[in-house]
Amino acid sequence: MLANGICEDPSCSGRHNVSTCDICGLVFGSPAAYAAHIATRRHLAKARGECGAFLFCSPCGKYVSGRNLWQSHVHTKKHKAKCESKGVPPDADPEEAEYVPNYTLCPTCNIHIQNEHWDRHLSTPKHLARQRFVSFQAALDEAERDKNGISIVGDFDFGIVDVSAAKSGMTISPTIKNATPSSKISLISMTLVSAKGVQTKSPFSVDYVPPRTVGYNIPYSFSVTLLQAHNGRAEDRLEILFEDMQLKKRFMIARVVRVIVGNRRDHENFRPSAPFKPRKRAARQPETNVVEGVLPPSLKAVPYVAPLPKATIPPYLVPVLSTGSTTSIIDNLRRLYLPPVVDSNTYARHYKFLLWIEEFRMERDLEHYDIPNAKLTVHNFYHLLDVPGLAEKRPSVLVGDRILVQKHSSASGHWFEGGVHFVRKEEVGLRTHSSFRASPADRFNIRFKLNRYPLRRQHLALDTAYSEDRVLFPVAQHVPTIPYPTPSSAKLRVFNSLIGTNAPQLQAVVSIVKRPPGSVPFVIFGPPGTGKTVTMVEAIRQLLVADPKARILACASSNSAADLIATRLVAGLTTDELFRFYAPSRNREQVPLELREYTFEKEGERGGHFSVPPLARMKRFRVVVATCVSASVVAGIGIPRGHYTHIFCDEAGQATEPEAMIAIKTMADNNTNVVLSGDPKQLGPIIRSAIARELGLEISYIERLMQREIYDETAGYGKSVVKLIKNFRSHNAILKFPNERFYKGELQPCGDTKTINAYLDSPLLPAAKFPIVFHAIAGKDDREAASPSFFNIDELSQVKQYVEKLRADRRFRITDGDIGVITPYHAQCLKIRAALRPVADGVKVGSVEEFQGQERRVIIISTVRSSREFVEYDLRHTLGFVANPRRFNVAVTRAQALLIVVGDPDVLGLDPLWRSFLNYVYLNGGWTGGDISWDPDVPVAEEGGYDDVVRSLAERDMNAFTRRMEALTMEGVETADADDDTNVDRPWQDVE
């Protein structure tokens, strides 16, 4: 028992370093953990007496604060027992609790406040801001009502208008009617809010002649004109002021004027299929009885000599990850399980916990793909299952995976396992236990199970004894003091003649080839388009020439990157020297033709499966190429540690540190040299758990090394790192902004002029010699059905127009494959693909992650977000993935000759990085579409705060309008809620 940090157990004489939070009822093992806790939102809310909206559990007769705690409550044994005794399902919806003892519900904020804190709550800035918003909404509702016998007749929504009609001008003519015979009502004024300077420039104008009075039953007409030369949405508020001459009293009637300028067919075809309703995560019934299925023979295609560890999530970790806010979970993990310092001794423990944390989130995210009402088709030995989204790897299903099947009539908890034997475009073939039966009329629940093999391979690597500081935690003492070799002293005969004229590339090759065994890892820091893979391949070829005993294991984070390495090595190596290993689940059709003879297949059911040749032959290969995860094969089949003199890892920034360690910790010895290439300024690995990201799993091995002193790009040049500076991809205008922002302005444009200048003087360019276009469009971000992913029809339509113009231009000829469309939201990807299908089906549309490492002659970016809920702006939610510097860097550096960005500047400009980029484009003449709403010559405030400015302007309008209405004696209430982003737009890591 603990009191004030002292253990009161008489058998214990020691003093424990313990702090207790009396408000939250939690105990902390150190003052630091306690200090972190009292800064959390949850603690501060409780200290203010705020408990969210209470829910009431009838079976238990208990009040539960908020949805998160409700989910924890319904899983307790006590709750389940109470429900069973009363014949109530344990996952029944809760009751909303209006009265809670000792609490008062604040309807404005929709939270319960302890009575003793009520007065203080009423004066908090958050409550007052919400109160102002409620008052504004009420005043607006009142203003839009007809009153005092006066009615405004007419539709103020122009609807969907083609840009040619909007450019020519369109007019609507509403009328004012007075239905009171004896009244004397005078029209004082008609004013658009934009004319007051509160909103940005409006395309609307109003034309009227105020009469002395609005006569009884004599319609009075006025006109509202639209004039806009670009696509996009516009909205304004028309305030009409009247005066009752007899009562000497003024009153207002307001109308909102709207228009969508764009393609009517696109808006009709791609509008939301159903109103957005957040998907409720129902409590999953546990799988208590699973009948094992028949797994494919490919799982035994590789003759592994040692079993993988199970490495399942420890049971004690699950409750910690299931309860509380992200901040409190992280505090508990650090206090209870994670080592305070990560070094050679604690390295494995630290990363094993991070893997378990990520696995827990991955399992939860897989629930999103559950199919509640599936059909199965029987074909020979297989049950065929249609899987929506399979082609986009949502979910990702590979041969050898397990899928659980439950007939609707089955007992709760009883499932059959189906082993995945083949995967087609939208269909998988399963084999279940022979007792399983399925008729055409049956319906099934489907659950996808996480493929744990990649995780288990990472755990296996972490469990090994290898923990050399010169590889994991290199310092200056690990670097030899002798001068590093230079190209002039090495005198290499290069295979790639271009490297001979590129000093940084040549230095990197020389440094790698001339390194003594057992050196610190060498880093090829390769910003976009600088040829880091070319440099790595040249280094591999030079090593093979310099040392007949050299053996090389070359890895990459993805199959496409590994294929690129192998393809470039084919020219100089025979099938007895180079081996490209693929996981047995890999489809043969996905393998480049020139690499097929460098692989090995083992015959089996439904054809061959990729495997490995006999061990003796495997040892003779001078180069083995695999993905980081599949690199476990060499240790797994019995090749001894130290067999490979060099371990290379390309695109190392996209692999988690445990993935990169699969090859290093299982195969390196004291003499093995490690070479990494990548760019820590671009996207890191895909991590689904916010907790794992916060704890460092998103920081790749190469990024962590680059943060160490010996990898300073100047002091460590040639010794531990070389930064490549010649960019062979992009036009200088495209390269300039990211170069200055992320790479100290050191990158030199060296691209082929025929390629990079291909779109100069194109009619698509607002500035003939500046191949960047920012198309400003005020759209609307929508969601539909249960998907929380955003899409924007206005931007979709504009992207389609650009693709149509690109493909139709006979002077600037281009193919579908030369165009790439990048957008951060999955729903927008799907909509754009559908829109382009009849126009240019070969154009790749994907996320930023899908384009990393790739290039296209033309890149079009659709940023999607166009929220107008400016009073409730939260920059993290409003911009989401868009306001991520690395995502921005990757997106804008994929283009060779033309970069087109379609987006809402008023939303993008809230982020300092985007505002700087928009200023750059505007000042160079690349702006088109809607106007810019700020002065681009004013230096950008890097600390941000632009969302506060917008919120302040919005509140100024809101308060001014409310005051005007209050002066006219009007009042009322109404409010709205916001909601959260999810992992739905985060792609899945592509591993096999």
UniProtKB/TrEMBL annotation:
Leading EC class: hydrolase
InterPro entries xrefs: DNA2/NAM7-like_C, DNA2/NAM7_AAA_11, Matrin/U1-like-C_Znf_C2H2, MOV-10-like_beta-barrel, MOV-10/SDE3_DEXXQ/H-box, P-loop_NTPase, SF1_C_Upf1, Znf_C2H2_sf
Record-linked PROSITE patterns: ZINC_FINGER_C2H2_1
Keywords annotated in UniProt: ATP-binding, Cytoplasm, Helicase, Hydrolase, Nucleotide-binding, RNA-binding, RNA-mediated gene silencing
Keyword Transcription on entry: no
Top-level taxonomic group: Eukaryota
Annotated catalysed reactions: ATP + H2O = ADP + phosphate + H(+)
Intracellular or extracellular location(s): Cytoplasm, Cytoplasmic ribonucleoprotein granule
Transmembrane region(s): none
Record SMART domains: ZnF_C2H2, ZnF_U1
Residues covered by the C2H2-type domain: 21-43, 57-79
Similarity comment text for this entry: Belongs to the DNA2/NAM7 helicase family. SDE3 subfamily.
Protein name: RNA helicase
Organism lineage: Eukaryota, Fungi, Dikarya, Basidiomycota, Agaricomycotina
